[in-house]
Amino acid sequence: MSTTVETVSAAARTAPAAVIVAIDGPSGTGKSSTSKAVAAQLGLSYLDTGAQYRAITWWMLNNGIDVQNPAEIATAAAKPVIVSGTDPSAPTITVDGEDASGPIRTQEVTSKVSAVSAVPEVRALITELQRSIAKEAERGIVVEGRDIGTTVLPDADIKIFLTASPEARAARRSGEVKGSDLAATREALIKRDAADSGRKTSPLAKAGDAVEVDTTDLTLTQVIECVVTLVGEKQAAK
Ligand SMILES: Nc1ncnc2c1ncn2[C@@H]1O[C@H](COP(=O)(O)OP(=O)(O)OP(=O)(O)O)[C@@H](O)[C@H]1O
Ligand SMILES: Nc1ccn([C@H]2C[C@H](O)[C@@H](COP(=O)(O)O)O2)c(=O)n1
């Protein structure tokens, strides 16, 4: 009995304390790429909250819900079962047991997700889901989105707000799709940011205690190193 207690106490002394990292910012600033890499390097879980809002949007579109009608969206919001896998090397998302990782990235979902995610009933349900996932992450978690530092996890150990110029973000996004129109991509990003920043319920915003990192002239490797260093400093101080 005493051996077990001593072993547990020793493990508690040597294991780093669980750390909660919130990474927010507009579209294309590098949140997903950075969060996944930071989580993998530090042995933490990873949650892409944008994927959850995309998943519920995809379900609404598949189930004949008028996504311009907030009341219809609110009534249906609790119906889909969304499950997120939090391994940073292989994140997953399912809706009612079906793999949704591909379909949630279509242009149709991208153009409708801001309207669906602005509905307060949707945000309440998804926020609750996000908090429960973060609570279950034994070693800690990197959670990325738009309102993580302000609303979902206001007590996160460290909050990062990534930014980049619209030109840099559009160039990054265009680089992913062969033959895409840079100007149209830039306009679409700006439009989505405006909708996400302008909604009433937990808009895209920098938390007062977040560290802002402008990634315009940084490589992805430099951004990852910067965030790993910031998290390491917090862990050491815990
Ligand atoms: N610092 C950087 N320099 C160059 N390219 C980058 C940088 N950061 C990310 N990228 C690239 O930009 C693209 C968008 O990055 P990512 O998906 O991580 O952004 P995001 O902020 O999560 O966007 P969204 O909110 O739209 O999902 C990816 O192709 C990624 O490889
Ligand atoms: N915490 C979050 C995360 C995402 N959203 C909404 C707004 C975004 O335009 C959309 C898709 O996110 P992405 O996959 O581009 O990161 O989801 C939000 O409202 N709150």
What's the CATH architecture name of the largest domain?
Answer: 3-Layer(aba) Sandwich
Count of DSSP strands: 8
Q: Main β-sheet: number of strands, strand sense, barrel status?
A: 5 strands, parallel
Strand content: 15-25%
CATH class of the largest domain, anyone?
Alpha Beta
- Uncertain residue ranges: 1-8
Tell me, rounded to a whole number, the average pLDDT.
Answer: 93
Major β-sheet strand ordering:
2-6-1-7-8
The Cα radius of gyration reads 19 Å
Distance between the termini: 30 Å
CATH topology of the largest domain: Rossmann fold
User: What is the helical fraction, as a range of percent?
Assistant: 40-55%
Order of helices and strands: HEHEHHEEEHHEHEHHEH
CATH superfamily of the largest domain: P-loop containing nucleotide triphosphate hydrolases
Question: Helix/strand/pairing class, anyone?
Answer: alpha/beta
Silhouette: globular
Q: Please count the helical segments.
A: 10
Task: Indicate how many domains the architecture comprises.
Answer: 2
Q: Tell me which ligands are bound.
A: adenosine-5'-triphosphate, ligand LCLUPRNS
Catalytic activity: CMP + ATP = CDP + ADP; dCMP + ATP = dCDP + ADP
InterPro entries: Cytidylate_kin, Cytidylate_kinase_dom, P-loop_NTPase
Main location: cytoplasm
Keywords: ATP-binding, Cytoplasm, Kinase, Nucleotide-binding, Transferase
How would the blueprint of this fold be written?
Elements: H1 2-14, E1 19-24, H2 31-42, E2 45-48, H3 49-62, H4 70-76, E3 82-85, E4 92-95, E5 98-99, H5 107-117, H6 120-136, E6 140-145, H7 148-152, E7 158-163, H8 166-176, H9 182-198, E8 211-214, H10 220-237
Parallel strand pairs: 1-6, 1-7, 2-6, 7-8
Antiparallel strand pairs: 3-4, 4-5
Bound molecules: adenosine-5'-triphosphate and the ligand Nc1ccn([C@H]2C[C@H](O)[C@@H](COP(=O)(O)O)O2)c(=O)n1.
GO molecular function: ATP binding; CMP kinase activity; dCMP kinase activity
Keywords: ATP-binding, Cytoplasm, Kinase, Nucleotide-binding, Transferase
Binding site for ATP: 25-33
